[in-house]
Design goal:
Helices cover 72% and strands 2% of the residues. By secondary structure, it is mainly alpha-helical. The protein has a single domain, classed as ABC transporter involved in vitamin B12 uptake, BtuC. The strands form 2 sheets. A two-stranded antiparallel ribbon has the order 1-4. Strands 2-3 form a two-stranded antiparallel sheet.
């Protein structure tokens, strides 16, 4: 079989497979439908069995509690779409907060914010280079980077926390209140990032390449897609998103703590999986990730109001993740028959 024939077959395979990614232009053809139905069921159940769930103040609290993990999950979703995983995203975000906090001591908060986001992007580039150029497994790379970055954050700050003064660095925790519901600027940024990344993934050539690389790397390579470049770009873009999450975290809690958000990486993976993005790559998207984040927070909030022990909340969340992965595996098997 000639190289030209192989390339033609690869292009044909990609057109068929990437069609799943293109489908996110239509809500019903995307993996949003199931998570959205689950979210609505959870809202209805908790509104019936608790007294305060639907109060504006509680709904506002749910939105604000979702912001940091939800933004981290957006970057995590990009990585998972390429059949990767990022165990270091929470640590990268924390590094961003402490860089911002320490740099802000000099008084230039704009420069501090830029330095924090750049620091996150640099670590993302390291992840991307090790995965794409060195060919190392994403799980191992990001596990190692998680350990290194966590230690580096503590060494950089001597394990000290830095209080953040009100102003630009905490502005994302503020926002207008409408009818008892506070819409913080952090929530607005989360939604805008979701819409922006959703557009990029569904309407641009880069988005098509991301889905193609995650679904079938050999076919993507034969079709002329620079797989290594796409992977590097994904990890860098994801890390920039983590840097924005660091800004949101300072708005939520105006303290740069090198020991903070220790489970954020697992929380973000949970949100992505529950939101319908496949751990095997090539399927899913950021809209489902937003819904998945809300499902996790709604579940925690509703069970807390119902007086359920936090340990049982963790059991329920873990079971939900297992079910989501099982459903994804069943769907993939049916599609490959």
């Amino acid at each position: 079989m000639t190289q030209a024939t192989l390339r033609q077959e690869a292009v044909a395979d990609l057109q068929k497979e990437v069609g799943h990614g293109r489908g996110i232009r239509s809500l019903l053809s995307h993996q949003v439908t199931g998570p959205l139905a689950a979210l609505l069921v959870a809202v209805v159940v908790f509104s019936v069995f608790t007294d305060r769930f639907l109060q504006p103040g509680n709904l506002s609290l749910i939105a604000q509690q979702s912001v940091v993990v939800g933004t981290l999950a957006l970057g995590q979703a990009l990585v998972i779409l390429t059949a990767g995983i990022d165990l270091a995203n929470g640590a990268i975000m924390v590094l961003g907060t402490v860089v911002i906090g320490k740099a802000a001591l000099d008084g230039d908060v704009v420069l501090a914010l830029v330095l924090g986001i750049v620091a996150c992007a640099v670590v993302g580039a390291v992840n991307g280079l090790l995965v794409s150029r060195a060919g190392l497994p994403p799980f191992i790379v990001t596990l190692g980077v998680l350990t290194v970055v966590t230690a580096a954050s503590r060494l950089y700050t001597d394990s000290a926390s830095y209080p953040i003064a009100d102003g630009l660095l905490t502005v994302l925790g503020d926002g207008p209140t409408i009818g008892g519901f506070t819409v913080t600027y952090g929530v607005m940024l989360w939604v805008l990032l979701t819409v922006g990344l959703g557009y990029v993934l569904s309407q641009t050539a880069w988005g098509v390449r991301v889905y193609a690389v995650g679904d079938n790397p050999p076919a993507a390579r034969l079709a002329g897609i620079k797989v290594k470049r796409v992977l590097l770009g994904v990890y860098v873009v994801a890390a920039i998103v983590y840097g924005l999450a660091a800004w949101q975290a300072l708005g939520r809690t105006p303290t740069a703590d090198p020991s903070g958000y220790s489970t954020a990486n697992l929380d973000s993976i949970t949100a992505v999986v529950i939101g319908g993005t496949s751990l095997f790559g090539g399927r899913g998207g950021v809209y489902g990730t937003l819904i998945g984040t809300l499902i996790v927070v709604v579940l925690q909030n509703g069970l807390t109001q119902a007086g359920i022990d936090s340990l049982y909340q963790q059991v329920a969340t873990g079971a939900l993740v297992i079910v989501a992965v099982l459903v994804d595996r069943i769907v993939r098997r049916r599609q490959t028959r």
